[in-house]
Design brief:
The complex is a heterodimer. By secondary structure, chain A is an all-alpha fold. Helices cover about 60% and strands about 0% of the residues of chain A. Chain A has helices spanning about 20-45, 45-70, 80-90, 95-110, 125-135, 140, 160-165, 175-180, 185-190, 205-215, 225-240, 245-250, 255-265, 275-295, 300-320. Chain B is built from 14 helices and 18 strands. Chain B is globular. The chains are: A mainly alpha, B alpha/beta. Chains A and B meet through helix 1 of A and strand 16, strand 17, helix 13 and helix 14 of B.
Chain lengths: ~325, ~450
């Protein structure tokens, strides 16, 4: 019986797919690159420096936390890199580096690892860190910190702040697209990213390219982004007095594309079922539009997603899949 | 050819890995010196040996008598002398009572082996009796006694027979080759099954990665107006019973129910061909096609092997091991059983012997669940595998039962797809066992 122990015995299946956590995270990083290039193009090399600092501190914090907790170090799964990039995308390019570092440490140490690490955090680490930074250093995170693209001049207002201030009131698409160039950006500027804002949110086009790549690679489904952006479009059309121009403006302005494609789809903090994902998109869309139109802030994407993150376990529970053979009890 | 292409919801796409043997015709394996024939090769009660040491036996002679209804007789695959009746290791992982026969190489056929008549003259009950007496069991791997499937409980009506030629397990090509080389036997067996159940609709479902088999079966069945050959989308587990029924008929077998609940009986194409042989020549189920394959074996082949031949001899006939072997699997890579010894016999359910190299057999290191939801997407039963698994790993089997652990068909799609390499189906299996044990305990109280 001696040679009997030469074979490995395990439960089936005996083959595994090539899918790995690392490959998924790498895909997300690849998908974020167009938006990073757009950020660098419009706001200068400072965008890249902020991003690198954010990633560096995210990764270092993960190593430190896992060493302290005597757990295996898993930075090679690249999830900390993704969090670092996403956090950088949510701050202005003028953000002081120490502030970015604090945000990264907070995201990884508190939001991610205090709740059990990868897959166990209940809210999106990058967004939670953004919320923390916004509450702690509001001036450095809002209007006066945003650069006008291509200059070193501080912008008067982001597109959404302009909307909120009523600059676009009573305008139709045609007049706004031509006559108001001096005061607010055109829709084309919004779409390609030639507007003031955070590093990663500026170009809807670049984010869309990344999103399509993720759907193509099977990393995310189109459900959350489409439900989210669609809801915002419909509701802003209604709240904006049935003005299609306002609706389109709302879709491309602010962090909606970044939030809908990259943040609301975060695996750990979004529902796993198809139905749940649509509810997630609808809920975030409703909250975002409500905040934008009736709240005190000009922008509502991050708080909407954070609120839906907290609702995710509940959504998961109420959207359990219907098992095969459950519907029909008899032939 | 006008062939419909059908499918089910969910599922996954493991690499087919069938190239090594799909073009190789079935070769008759060497007759072994000694056969070890287990008295339990099927689901159900073991057989009682009806021969003793020193007895002379002939090919096709019954050597094990079933005890109980859910059981199936066992026959000798060679002629020769019984040299032992004792417990031996088999591919189920435990020891079972086996009849060991020294082959005299004469292949003397038993007098009981004679043609049983034609389909036209045989009655439904006669066909069922032939199937039962010939020891026919499901040859797809599970080895459920076929005559039990054909005994439809009162109150249920069956209107459809489906033959499973999906062969969705990667690597395996035994059904493929059978359909290609002997399509008439498959059709004949299906007609026998349809007559035995007095049904008028028969399907033969084949995955569309086997266009030649589809064509062969289509041609063999083209004069049978009651039989439809259908193409199935190549997707694992297309050949799982409930998924196959759904694909062919659109009917969902109720949770916890049987195919008969939706008026269907499913059999493997190999089983069907064995039924044809049993009727036409009277030979019981004493041999089967085994795909011997994998990078760990020198010359992969499709072999026609006598039941009771040892894995070792079969592998040797294929040139032996190649390189460092990591795993030997009885069956396919998705649901087959890993073996710790190759001194075990080929039995009625051994569809393949898969030899994986040390590199291929490496265990992936599991990491945190990232809640990507891929396991939910691929589950053909629409369960939430990560959730059942989490409860199971916490020993919360009551909660695992609540989230439908018992509905799991253990196809392994979830474990296959998981990017974090979590032991999903493994832990669900543990939960199922625990739940069953608890139910048994509750019953005995």
């Amino acid at each position: 019986m001696l040679d009997s122990t030469m074979f490995r015995v395990t439960s089936s299946p005996h083959i595994r797919s090539g899918e790995t956590t690392q490959r998924i995270m790498l895909d997300v990083i690849i998908a974020l690159l167009p938006a990073l290039f757009a950020g660098i193009y419009y706001f200068g090399m400072r965008s890249l420096i902020v991003t690198l600092v954010s990633v560096l501190f995210a990764v270092a914090t993960e190593v430190a936390m896992q060493k302290i907790m005597k757990r295996p170090v898993t930075v090679d799964d690249l999830s900390a890199v993704v969090t670092g990039i996403l956090l950088a995308f949510n701050v202005p390019s003028t953000a002081p580096l120490w502030m970015v570092a604090i945000g990264s440490i907070f995201a990884i140490a508190i939001v991610k690892h205090c709740f059990g690490g990868l897959g166990h955090n209940f809210i999106n680490p990058a967004l939670a860190a953004r919320a923390m930074l916004l509450a702690s250093w509001p001036v450095r995170m809002t209007s006066s910190a945003f650069l006008t693209p291509g200059t070193d001049a501080v912008s008067s207002a982001t597109p959404l702040a302009a909307l909120k201030a009523g600059m676009l009131d009573g305008m139709s698409g045609a007049t706004a697209a031509t006559a108001t160039v001096q005061t607010v950006p055109t829709i084309m500027d919004l779409f390609i990213g030639n507007v003031a804002g955070c590093i990663g949110e500026t170009s809807a086009l670049a984010l869309l390219i990344g999103g399509l790549y993720l759907v193509y690679r099977g990393v995310i489904s189109f459900r959350i982004p489409v439900a989210y952006i669609g809801t915002v479009a419909i509701l802003s059309f209604i709240f904006g007095g049935f003005n299609p121009y306002i609706a389109v403006y709302h879709i491309f302005a602010g962090g909606l594309f970044l939030g809908a494609i990259f943040m609301a789809t975060d695996y750990s903090t979004s529902p796993m079922t198809a139905k749940g994902q649509i509810i997630m998109g609808l809920g975030a869309g409703i909250l975002t539009t409500l905040i934008r139109f009736y709240g005190a802030y000009p922008e509502g994407v991050s708080y909407s997603i954070l609120l839906m993150n907290v609702a995710t376990p509940l959504i998961d529970r109420f959207t359990m899949t219907k098992k095969f053979g459950e519907v029909k009890k008899s032939a | 050819m006008n062939i419909r292409t059908l499918s089910f919801k969910g599922g996954t796409h493991p690499p087919h890995s069938k190239e090594a043997t799909e073009k190789l015709a079935v070769v008759k394996a060497k007759s072994p010196e000694v056969v070890v024939i287990p008295m339990q090769q099927h689901i159900g009660a073991p057989c009682e040996p009806i021969v003793k040491v020193g007895d002379e036996v002939k090919v096709g002679q019954k050597i094990g008598e079933p005890k109980g209804f859910v059981s199936s007789p066992v026959h000798s695959s060679v002629s020769g002398k019984v040299i032992a009746v004792e417990p031996r290791l088999y591919s189920g992982g435990t020891k079972v009572n086996c009849v060991v026969i020294q082959n005299d190489m004469q292949d003397t056929i038993s007098e009981t082996v004679k043609p049983k008549g034609s389909l036209e003259t045989l009655s439904a009950d006669e066909i069922k009796e032939i199937i039962k007496e010939s020891g026919i069991v499901g040859m797809g791997g599970a080895a459920f006694p076929t005559h039990v499937k054909l005994a439809i409980p009162p109150g249920k009506t069956v209107d459809t027979v489906i033959l499973n030629g999906a062969e969705c397990e990667p690597y395996l090509t035994s059904d493929h080759r059978l359909m290609l080389e002997n399509p008439d036997a498959v059709v004949y067996g299906l007609k026998a099954l349809m007559k035995a159940l007095s049904v008028t609709k028969g399907f033969i479902g084949i995955e569309n990665n086997k266009p030649d088999a589809l064509e062969a079966m289509y041609n063999a069945a083209k004069d049978e107006k009651d039989i439809e050959v259908v193409a199935l989308k190549t997707k694992y587990p297309q050949g799982a019973e409930k998924q196959l029924i759904y694909a062919c008929t659109g009917r969902e077998v109720p949770s916890g129910g049987l195919p008969a609940d939706v008026g269907v009986v499913v059999n493997n194409v190999g089983t069907s061909a064995a039924i044809a042989d049993a009727i036409k020549t009277g030979i019981p189920l004493i041999q089967r096609i085994v795909t011997v394959t994998g990078k760990g074996v020198k010359n992969p082949q499709n072999l026609l092997v006598k039941i009771g031949t040892s894995f070792r001899e079969v592998i040797d006939e294929c040139g032996g091991f190649s390189g460092r072997v990591g795993k030997v699997v009885a069956g396919g890579p998705m649901m087959g059983i890993a073996q710790y010894s190759i001194d075990i016999p080929v039995i009625k359910g051994t569809s393949g012997i898969l030899v994986l190299t040390e590199e291929e057999a490496k265990l992936p290191e599991p990491s945190n669940c990232i809640r990507c939801g891929k396991c939910v997407n691929v589950c053909p039963i629409n369960l939430m595998p990560f959730m059942i698994s989490n409860y199971s790993l916490l020993d919360r089997f009551d909660k695992a039962e609540e989230v439908n652990a018992m509905d799991c068909i253990e196809c392994g799609s979830c474990s296959f797809i998981c990017p974090a390499k979590r032991p999903l189906v493994d832990s669900i299996r543990v939960a199922k066992r625990e739940i069953l044990a608890k139910r048994k305990k509750a019953q005995s109280k």
